[in-house]
Specification:
Helices cover 29% and strands 22% of the residues.
Amino acid sequence: MIFPRDEIIQNAHIKDYEKFYKESIEDPRAFWENIAGELLWFKPWNKVLQWQYPYARWFLGGQTNLVYNALDRWQKTPIAEKLGLIWVGQPDKQTPDNFPIRTFTYKQLHEEVCRLANGLKNLGVKKGDRVIIYLPRIPEQFISMLACAKIGALHSVVYSGFSTEALKSRIEDAQAKLIITTDWYPYKDKILKPIENVIEAVKGIEGVEYVVVVERDKYQSNPKSQILNPKQYQNSNAANSKQNYFENSDLKIKFLSYHNLLSKQDSVCSTEIMESTDPSFILYTSGSTGKPKGVLHSHGGYMVGVYATMKYVFDIHGDEIFWSTADAGWITGHSYILYGPLLNGITTFVYEGTPDYPDIEVWWKLIDRFRITHFYTAPTAIRALMRFGEEPIKKYHLSSLRILGSVGEPINPEAWQWFYKNIGREKLPIMDTWWQTETGMHMLTPLPSVPLKPGSCFKPFFGVVASVVDENGQSQPVDKQGYLVIKTPWPSMLLDLWNNPQRYKETYFEKVKSQKSKVKTDFCYFTGDSAKIDKDGYFWITGRNDDVIKVSGHRLGSAEIEHAIVEHPKVAEAAVIGKPHEVKGESIKAFVILKLGQTPSDELKKEINDLVRKQIGPIASIDEIVFVDKLPKTRSGKIMRRVLKAQELGLPVGDLSTLEE
């Protein structure tokens, strides 16, 4: 167990987690009502919570708007002149220290958002309409989200690396009226052109009236911008040969220049008054089969949950420069790149590039140069950087950092220790946060002032009651794996699945037997994850329920076995799957990536297997180990075990829209 330093406890908002947590669950409504009172409302609520199976509705009767609290409320305060957004573009490999930079104070960000909001209104976008945002990590991605929320339209951000098919399915499902995209952007040494995917995707779709195009080369209209030159990249002719999509006669849709649209607009725009329970956005998350689920979030409840978790989990006091390495195509980008930081009046930092381009030092260079205080990233990125060893980090101070965070999947203890030692200098707490697209906010998470166990996501956030149960809904004993469920409603939980209430009910409220009882008064949200709770009450996520391998009647979590494999000093990353077995029910097969410079051998296979047997027990013995160069992952870095399993068994691989190329 790793204990916090005295100075961290002294500075923390919450010094005694257990006391504060106990009070919060004795009266969760009062707890959340107090938090909501720290934000601005056009009209106060008359009921904190209404639970009517299977829906929870928060702050009924209350009227507010996400953007009213993220931007508007700061405009007549000193925060208006503070930087709200620092954006750093990907540099050229030949000049790796020459970063394109664009900055926005809260005042400048508000003005840009108002201009786009007015532009959208002039194009007929109104409250309740859906706008698809198909942009990379550039300021316009965030400006577009805020502009939509400001006028009561629902934004649906689609990750810019998604294929034409994935984009088309989301445009159709959301019944979008307008799409915002860009002509090109750099990805390492390539040029990617989202506009081409949009032109293909909108063919045959009724309802889309406009495509608004952010022209990369017009960034210089912002005097603080340095602009990337497309000639620096391969295929530069493609980037320079201007497609005349603004006059595309084959499509009934009008293509408009983002910059031309904004240049005609006023920098003042009134904010739409929204009911607390009105939807703010749709974010699609992949199911293992079938079409993606459109997760629908609110204005009021979502805002309260994200504001509170940002403030307490990351111990926000107002002078922070917060860097989440995620993308707004994922929920982390919504909650903790954009809305969480702005609701708390701090600076959010965005880097357009990847952790290994133009070199493997780029992240540490940026932390030192921009004095980043909070660094929130994914275990898959940490493990990728571990392969390069400690040398690339040693020349950087990283002294501005106060708090580290991990998100997206369980972090194995070895990666946790590496992060703690090399980036945290064995001083900084790591907030290993467990949550989902559907939860909107952190659900299981440490706070900076609590003792940490590498690989555990600590305990529930305030006002949240979590449990680990069997298929009958009965609580599991200590250290026994089961289904992770949430027993209390929380403000930022999804409102519904877009146009699919039946799937909502089946996915989250009808999975364990106790949920299927005739009396539907008790709240029990099924997360789809497996977990166990240790003797100290710490939660350990062991994987997705569909990632459970059943060997001779024993349920083993994929993540648990993978964590044991990567404890081996020569291993960088691993994925395991279950295969049908005549005797054991399922056998275990492991796909292993070695660290740079390591050589596969039968002896190494034996060492790995011995380690797993020692860590978990003989029941977890691996039947097959293969060494591979890479693993199939989603674009947010999660290993797609079902793809490995489908390939192994010759089955359909299902939805691959999130698969990284």
